[in-house]
Amino acid sequence: MRKLTGQSLLFLLIVLLFSCGKEEKALYLSGRIEGDEYDIGAKIGGKVVEVRVEEGKEVRKGEVLAKLDSKELEAKLRRAEAVVRSLREKLRALEVKRELLVKELDINLKASVKRREVARDELQGLEHTKRELEVRKEKLLKDLKRFRELFSKGVIPQSKLEEIETEVGSLEERIRALGKAMEELRKKVELAELEIELAREKRKEIEALEKEIASLRERVREAEAGVEEVRALLEDTILRSPIEGTVVEKFVEEGEVVPPGKVLFTVVNLDELYFKGYLPETKLGLLRLGQEAYVKVDSFPERKFPAVVSYISDRAEFTPKEVQTKEARVKQVFAVKMRLKENPGHVLKPGMPAEAYVELR
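Now predict its structure.
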């Protein structure tokens, strides 16, 4: 076996030292600056009558960016509101009519029932009195027959006979008067019962009116829904920013007619940007969530912007065409996001090419 010479040992030591010195001190990623973009589009078509912002303008949440022509919708809203007012007036009139009918029916029904009961009670009292008088009359008639026999025999005087005849006549007159009074009371009872029956028929009229009211209420609800629909369309003629941010793109000019769905503005919150790059599978173990990082852009080569690793994809994908990594031969990569801690003066913009690095310790 050949022995290593001193020169060979020296060469081997240099190779080993060189190999150990190749340990990476930082992990670099290429990518670009991105942000959560909000596209503001026209939900309805129409002519743009006002544009209030330009690219680069900072806007508040809810701030108006542009307006579409709303004259036709405003006229439609007025017509719809007029229909609602008319239907509400009709509904109120029917409700008042029903309330009056119900109140009138209640009063009349109670009065009729009371009249019937009073007449029945009086009739019952007269019937009792009439029966008593008829019993008394029967007794007097028997007495009268006996007194006539006694008179014919000369036992009693004529005055006594006339006295009992007068009493019988008086009782018969009272009984006839009671009969007439009882007949009048029976008529009152029949009239009260007729009124009660008519009141019940009136209840059917109220039930029909309630059905009409229910139908009209449904029409009012439908008309109100139509008003709300037009109001929603009117609101859609006003384009507002959904966030506090910066208008980064404007795709419309005043006077332009736009179709439904066309994007007119893009707004981004420039204080919440992030770097997005792609990490080769072979380097995946070097990165973890929460690691401190730095981002650099060509526009400001002397500045580095602090960031933190906020997202590491758990799925591999092919390297995007727009990204040129150092390991160009590696096809499988993982998307990585690094949230920028600050953006002084909003100098960083979405779409800027950038490079990020993480110091490995």
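Residues 1-22 have pLDDT under 50 and may be disordered.
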